[in-house]
Write a structure and sequence with these properties.
This protein has eleven helices and eight strands. With about 280 residues, it is an alpha/beta fold. The chain has an eight-stranded mixed sheet, sandwiched between helices. It starts with a strand and ends in a 16-residue tail after the last helix. The structure holds nicotinamide-adenine-dinucleotide.
């Protein structure tokens, strides 16, 4: 039972990226945003991204056209009814995601797999909102999804082996490298990455070094492609705060307690690249 038709819910940074990956890999993709205009804008952005790849000689025109022909955009959740796999990638808020799983459970066909792209939240809580917890798991793509090789497949206690095998096959077809991880906050990458990012904010707040020197140090000293503040801006400061809150809730480790500066910046609407201002100014 190979996955052919994929539903993506959420039109943010990650929803758009995952849609591009799935459609390029040959899947039919149904993109759902709460507003039709946003869903249509996602398809327009996808077309722009594919055109850039054609201009750079990385994609044939025929492949661009075939990819676009596989994508439909909708504001109606019911259009996901016959998808084999639905990946939700809406805001990192457990109540919102639980409500969405409840709705998807009623709408989607019985053998559909329902997956979440959450960065940290307990997948089991979403699974238990459905009547098919054995068909629920996490499929955690990284940002930007078209460029990043890794996908964490997150297995809650309830997931069946068949579900994980089908999702692993989907990830393989998408050309990504899957790793398996249990349903614990932060999974592998964010559980290791976020104490580092949070401590970088602490270092800045304590005046140990300035933003540019911290970013320069981690690039030059660890060979990282970008420093912690550039990475926080890329992830989004609201998403980063939600990730740290979820990690702290689960483990009560002080390294996960979000730094006050991060919380204040989110309150001020400085969310990083997506809002135009974060630790850096993108305007
Ligand atoms: N940003 C990253 O680097 C990254 C990486 C991997 C996974 N994720 C995860 O992907 C998911 C989406 O993150 P993103 O970075 O794309 O965020 P984003 O802010 O770019 O997009 C969030 C989307 O959720 C929608 N949304 C907001 N409130 C909603 C509601 N009440 N009901 C339905 N939809 C709602 C928004 O309209 C938007 O389309 C989150 O679970 C996040 O943890 C993010």
């Amino acid at each position: 039972m190979t996955i052919k038709r994929v539903g993506i819910v959420g039109s943010g940074i990650m929803g758009s990226g995952i849609a591009e990956v799935a459609a390029k890999a040959g899947h039919e993709v149904v993109l759902r945003s709460r507003q039709q205009a946003t869903a249509d804008a996602m398809v327009a952005a996808l077309e722009k991204s594919l055109n850039r790849q054609v201009d750079k000689g990385r994609l044939e025109e025929a492949d661009r056209d075939a990819t676009l022909s596989r994508v439909t955009a909708t504001s109606n959740l019911h259009e996901l009814a016959d998808c084999d796999l639905v990946i939700e990638s809406v805001v990192e808020d457990l109540d919102v995601k639980k409500e969405l799983f409840k709705e998807l459970n009623h709408i989607c066909k019985d053998d559909a797999i329902l997956a979440t792209n959450t960065s940290t939240l307990p997948v089991i809580e979403m699974a238990m909102e459905t009547h098919r917890p054995e068909q629920v798991c996490g499929v955690h793509f990284f940002n930007p999804a078209p460029a990043m090789a890794l996908v964490e497949i997150v297995t809650p206690l309830t997931a069946s082996e068949e579900t994980i095998d089908r999702v692993r096959e989907f990830v393989d077809i998408c050309g990504k490298s899957p790793v398996l991880v249990k349903d614990r906050a932060g999974f592998i990458v964010n559980a290791l990455l976020f104490p580092y990012l949070n401590n970088a904010v602490r270092m800045l707040e304590n005046g140990i070094a300035n933003r540019d020197d911290i970013d320069t140090a981690m690039k030059g000293g660890c060979n990282f492609p970008m420093g912690p503040f550039a990475l926080l801006d890329l992830v989004g400061l609201d998403t980063s705060l939600a990730i740290l809150d979820a990690l702290y809730d689960e483990f009560r480790d002080p390294n996960f307690a979000p730094q006050p500066l991060l919380r204040r910046m989110v309150s001020a609407g400085n969310l990083g690249r997506k809002s135009g201002v974060g630790f850096y100014d993108y305007s």
